[in-house]
Design brief:
The complex is a heterotrimer. Chain A is α+β, with helices and mostly antiparallel strands. Chain A contains four helices and five strands, in the order αβααβββαβ. A five-stranded mixed sheet of chain A has the order 2-1-3-4-5, covered by helices on one side. The relative contact order of chain A is 0.16. Chain C is about 40% helix and about 15% strand. In chain C, a hairpin with a 7-residue loop joins β11 and β12. In chain C, α2 packs across α9, α5 packs parallel to α7 and α14 packs antiparallel against α15. Classes of the chains: A alpha+beta, B alpha+beta, C alpha/beta. Chains in contact: A-B, A-C, B-C.
Chain lengths: ~120, ~160, ~475
């Protein structure tokens, strides 16, 4: 990132990034928890799987490794946001479940078991 | 073990590490971290070399090492086993897992097997409480460990 | 059900890539710093005071007041320190923030630096958190490159550099004076206050120490306003608190709830209740310095004052749930074992007193305790509390006192009836074979390392209680549930 020299430069960068973020909302967004316990539960493989499989799908997407949502009981967790709908968090995701998430939810909008309701 | 590392080699490496931190005694803990990373443990020879290089008494180095549980003066086994004894792991039965490792390996917590293969120690909390009880062998984390699984886990390394 | 959680400190965790500064900025990152730098120092301090934010590391000291003190001290050099030495077993909220949203801590430290007039900050972090360290380093480099940290930030002439210092596994270093000693390359032994770090801290200079979660709240307060923050929580405790739910609760994890949420809501609504349908027995808050809350506290709103009144404390936010299978004297002993090992040894009450407490508890859990011992436990605890030098010693007897107060019957059973109802204390339990269920398979006999089991194949087996070492091997091996613990 280039050096920001004053408030004005910072503000225009901020606006620019916000516009970009808004554009992302038109895409399928996949957030994969990559904190210590997520990784210990196998999230790195899940991240790799999505990175490999998603480009083969006919949808626009963003994949982001993130920190954790605090749902230790269900790690690895993956949050998927389809354009125009609310976030859905899937728990205990392995590559097998990752495939289901892509085939059922991302491609057809059908929910699968193991969705975590945050309370 | 300690004598196996040549003294000259130790001095050179220690000098190199200390220089990275400008030989500043205030950086002692950082120097110890780096030294332990390199040597695996902090034997007397390393301690005196550090003391000489940054011009502080060896007793001060020893005092700091013994104060912090992260530093060790004992060589670790090829496969260091760490058993988390944080509260979450404790209430979920970590003690039974610890006892089972002691039984299987015939060493006590803190010791190394005579063949140098396994060493055992307890940790306070590795922050993976969702997987309690947790153990680590090297960098690998095992979650929800049951005492009856211990023998199988050890076998992976035999 | 409407979510009971409100995420302020954890607002970005799980929603941004912690290794990408753009993600953070797109979610209002560094906006608080930019706002701060365009205003006066006093404004920032007043905003934080008005928000009512209190230290999330355990003590609960008003954060704004702390900043005001440090700002008022005259000095050419001051420091900002972030305490990330999360040593409380069972607590991992700081790790989560640092791994999921490292920039929010960096930004808040810079804001604090501007407010108190410091140009240098350090994060004191546990060496046991390699991933958090890695992400902090990346974040520091990115922020510096973008001119959001370092020299002449956003062209305002304000300089702020941040460095890392590593802890090495000493619980007492969470105490701010001990932490400073450790940062200076010494044994982390606490010193008497005053002078407070605000007057004479790191390298003898005025220093402000806050913990990770406290800092993580700052940017949100500045962006959304002190009034917004103060509208959440209770009269004396504003905002939210992150708890690490662990132990025998179904949904183990991190939750962030408004102050004033009850223990019942936390454990049963958010936590999903107890694993395996067992009965709730106690919840431990405040780690080794805290106490056990019981069924009668389930509807107490959680804030700094009410937890204290209930004989526990907020602590850093570890919340360990225990069920009927946990033995309370053994739990107290577990915590004392921790304190004895972590006591720095500088002052006598903590060094020697806690050791004696541990020995008495050991006697009790081994079936050798007396009623006299229970009284001794109480008296000695009071002495240690009132005469120790630092927070570690002053709070170390809390687990003993709170279990004694809330579970006196269990202690009584241990010393008088020689019974452990949770069947944890080995010396107080017996393994018995129920003749009706025993099919005589001999599995238990073969498993017994002490040759304490007799009986021929297809005959009823019997455990010789004098020889039995209570290892439980037979219990594990029996496929017919013929062995019970009494």
């Amino acid at each position: 990132m280039k050096q920001l020299k004053n408030f004005g430069e910072f503000e225009s960068l901020r606006q620019e990034l916000k516009v970009k973020e808004a554009e992302n909302e038109k895409k399928v967004r996949i957030y994969i928890a990559m904190a210590t316990c997520s990784i210990a539960s196998g999230s790195a493989k899940v991240l790799e799987y999505f990175k490999e499989e998603m480009p083969k799908q006919p949808v626009e997407f963003v994949i982001k490794p993130t920190g954790c949502l605090g749902l230790c009981h269900s790690e690895p967790t993956v949050e998927v946001v389809l354009p125009g709908s609310g976030p859905v968090v899937f728990g205990k995701v392995d590559t097998k479940r990752a495939k289901l998430i892509i085939d059922e939810y991302i491609k057809n909008g059908k929910l699968i078991d193991g969705v975590i309701e945050e309370n | 073990m300690a004598c196996a590392i040549k003294e000259k080699e130790i001095k050179e490496k220690v000098a190199e590490i200390c220089k990275e931190f400008n030989n500043d005694p205030k950086e002692l803990i950082a120097i110890l971290h780096k030294s332990q990373n390199h040597f695996g443990f902090l034997p007397k020879e390393v301690q005196t070399a550090i003391a000489e290089t940054i011009h502080i008494p060896a007793s001060k180095v020893y005092g700091v090492i013994t104060f912090y549980s992260y530093f060790t003066m004992e060589p670790k086994g090829k496969y260091p086993i760490s058993i988390c004894m944080g509260t979450a792991c404790y209430v979920k039965g970590a003690e039974k897992v610890l006892k089972e490792f002691e039984k299987q390996l015939e060493i006590k917590n803190g010791q190394t097997t005579p063949d140098g293969k396994f060493s055992m120690n307890t940790l306070r909390c590795i922050g993976a409480c969702g997987l309690a009880p947790v153990i680590m062998i090297g960098e690998k984390v095992y979650g929800s460990v049951k005492p009856e699984e211990v023998a199988k886990i050890i076998k992976e390394y035999e | 059900m409407k979510s009971k959680q409100i995420k302020i400190a954890l607002r970005n965790c799980g929603h941004i890539d912690p290794e990408d500064l753009s993600d953070y900025i797109a979610r209002d990152g560094y906006k608080a710093l930019s706002t701060t730098l365009s205003g006066s120092r006093e404004t920032v301090v007043q905003t934080i005071i008005k928000s009512g934010l209190r230290g999330r590391g355990g003590g609960g000291f008003p954060t704004g007041k702390k900043w005001e003190l440090a700002a008022a001290v005259k000095g050419d050099k001051k420091y900002v320190i972030c305490n990330a030495d999360e040593g409380d077993p069972g607590a991992f909220m700081d790790r989560s923030v640092l791994e999921g949203d490292p920039h929010s801590v960096l930004e808040a430290m810079a804001v604090c630096g501007y407010a108190i007039g410091a140009d240098e900050g350090y994060i004191y972090i546990r060496a046991e958190y390699p991933l958090a360290i890695k992400r902090l380093k990346i974040a520091m480099a990115q922020a510096k490159e973008a001119g959001l940290l370092g020299q002449n930030i956003l062209g305002t002439g304000f300089n702020f550099e941040i460095g890392l210092k590593y802890g090495a596994g000493a619980f007492v270093c969470g105490e701010e004076t001990a932490l400073i000693k450790s940062m200076e390359g010494n044994r982390g032994e606490p010193i008497m206050k005053p002078p407070y770090p605000a007057q004479k801290g790191f390298m003898g200079k005025p220093t402000n120490v806050n913990n990770v979660e406290t800092f993580a709240n700052i940017p949100a307060i500045i962006n959304k306003g002190a009034d917004w923050f103060a509208s959440i929580g209770t009269e004396g405790s504003k905002g939210t608190k992150v708890f690490a739910l662990a132990g025998k609760v179904k949904n183990v994890g991190l939750v962030e709830v408004p102050m004033g949420t009850t223990l019942r809501e936390l454990i049963f609504d958010i936590g999903g209740g107890i694993v395996g349908g067992k009965k709730f027995k106690a919840a431990q808050t405040g780690g080794p310095s805290g106490g056990c809350l019981t069924e009668k506290h389930l509807d107490t709103p959680i804030d700094y004052e009410s937890l204290k009144a209930a004989g526990s404390m907020m602590g850093s936010g570890g919340l360990i749930v225990m069920d009927e299978d946990n033995c309370m004297p053994a739990v107290a002993q577990f915590y004392l074992d921790f304190t004895v090992e972590e006591s720095c040894g500088k002052c006598v009450p903590c060094r020697e007193g806690n050791k004696v407490l541990y020995q008495i508890l050991n006697k009790i859990t081994h079936g050798n305790g007396t009623l006299e011992d229970l009284k001794k436990l109480k008296d000695l605890s009071e002495i240690i509390k009132s005469t120790s030098l630092c927070g570690l010693g002053q709070t170390a007897p809390n687990p003993v006192l709170s279990t004694l107060n809330n579970f006196y019957d269990e202690y009584y059973e241990h010393v008088v009836e020689k019974k452990c109802r949770a069947k944890v204390c080995r010396a107080l339990i017996k393994y018995i074979i129920i003749p009706d269920k025993c099919v005589g398979c001999g599995a238990c006999k073969r498993a017994c390392p002490a040759e304490a089991i007799s009986g021929e194949i297809k005959q009823k087996h019997l455990i010789d209680q004098d020889k039995c070492i209570k290892c439980g091997a037979c219990y594990q091996k029996c496929k017919f549930n013929a062995i019970i613990i009494e």
